[in-house]
Design brief:
Elements: E1 4-7, E2 18-22, E3 27-32, H1 39-42, E4 58-60, H2 66-69, H3 72-77, E5 83-86, H4 88-115, H5 129-136, E6 139-141, E7 148-151, E8 154-160, E9 168-174, E10 177-181, E11 204-206, H6 221-229
Parallel strand pairs: 3-4, 4-5, 5-6, 10-11
Antiparallel strand pairs: 1-2, 2-3, 7-8, 8-9, 9-10
């Protein structure tokens, strides 16, 4: 089976995570985030996606942060009617994030129209609270570590990756070839969270590299806290 993978965000920049995976049996996305940061990045959110979102069957979420989920109501506005799938904790966080994000978009548009500083007449919210609520109705909760059959030759499962509560990497099996999407990765020695699990196998690995070119000091967190509170 031919598989087409397309990077729609988080390539060349940190935010806006969106992977499109197209096959003959179904089409899906892994994450659906907003671009954040400087104005040039934020404006990318307004560019139309180079795919027909009406043909997407499902969106799999690695975790609930805005740069991985914040584009979902826009996807729904453009015609997406499939399932949005994640762990219970991820979907609970996403629910809060999307409602808050929609409220901010509406307030910013209202302020821009009132004060007249937008070049758009009228200024419109990127999405509305009503669209966020429509998005929430598409949520489907799944448990970690369980393979879910999506079609005859495609299945997936979510495995804990230690970034935040409920966060996972996603193993996508297509004709028994394993694609692993890391999401944002946590650490093995964390004071609050369990260490991330490791994939048993990956034929193709799509991994985040936010700190790939940075070295973190080995100083213990406890010692840093002591220094800060002196």
């Amino acid at each position: 089976m031919k598989v087409h993978v397309q990077f729609l965000g988080a390539a060349g920049t940190v935010t806006g995570s969106k992977f499109y995976v197209g096959t003959q049996e179904l089409n899906l996305m892994v994450d659906c985030g907003m671009f954040q940061g400087i104005k040039a990045l934020r404006e990318l959110n307004w560019h139309p996606l180079p795919i027909d979102v009406r043909g997407i069957d499902m969106v799999l979420l690695t975790h609930g942060h805005l740069d991985h989920t914040g584009y979902l109501p826009r996807l729904v506005r453009e015609g997406f009617k499939g399932e949005i799938i994640g762990t219970a904790a991820t979907l609970a966080i996403t629910e809060v994030i999307l409602r808050d994000s929609a409220k901010i978009h509406e307030e910013e548009a209202e302020k821009a129209n009132k004060e007249g500083y937008s070049r758009h007449k009228p200024a419109l919210p990127f999405y509305t609270l009503e669209e966020a609520e429509r998005t929430l109705r598409l949520f489907r909760t799944v448990k970690e570590d369980q393979w879910i059959k999506a079609s005859d030759h495609i299945r997936f499962r979510f495995r804990y990756n230690g970034h935040i509560i409920g966060s996972t990497y996603i193993e996508l099996s297509i004709n028994e070839r394993i694609l692993v999407f890391s999401g944002d990765l946590g650490r093995y020695e964390d004071l609050l969270l369990e260490p991330p699990k490791q994939p048993e196998w990956a034929d193709y690995l799509f991994v985040e590299s936010t700190y790939g070119n940075k070295l973190h000091p080995d100083e213990e967190v406890e010692q840093q806290l002591v220094e800060l509170t002196r």
